[in-house]
Amino acid sequence: MIHLTSADAQNRFGQLLEMAQREPVAITRHGRTAGFVIAPQDMAILLDARQKRSNALIDLQAHLQQVQAQHAPDLEPPTAQDIAEEIRATRLARQRKG
C-alpha cells in the first residue's frame, strides 16, 4: 500500500488517482491515516462484500428464529433468579466432589 501525506495528495492529485488504479493509497494527516483512495473496481468489490455480509446476517438471524421456534417454542429466557439458582446448584455440586 502506498502512503502519502495529505499535503502530497493535494499537490499530486493527478498522480494520486493514477496510483490508486494500481493499489490503494493511504492518506495521512499528522502521522495518522485520514483516508484511503481506491480504484472504482476495488470499491465495487468492497460494496458487494458488505452487501453479501449484510444479507448473510439477515439470513442467519431468520434461520436462528426458525430453529428456535421449531425446537423451543415455549421456552422463556431464564430470569435472574433462575441463573442464581443454577450457579448455587453448580457450586454445591463442585463442593461435594471436591
Key descriptive features of the protein:
about 100 residues, alpha+beta, YefM-like fold, 2 domains, 3-stranded mixed beta sheet, 4 helices
Descriptive overview:
With 98 residues, this protein is α+β, with helices and mostly antiparallel strands. The chain has two domains: 2-38, YefM-like fold (3-Layer(aba) Sandwich); 42-97, no CATH class. It is 67% helix and 15% strand. It has four helices and three strands, in the order βααββαα. The protein has a three-stranded mixed beta sheet with strand order 1-2-3. The longest helix has 32 residues, at 40-71. It is elongated.
SSE sequence, one letter per element: EHHEEHH
Query: What's the overall average pLDDT, rounded?
Result: 92
The number of distinct helices, counting runs of at least 4 residues, comes to 4
- Rg, nearest Å: 27 Å
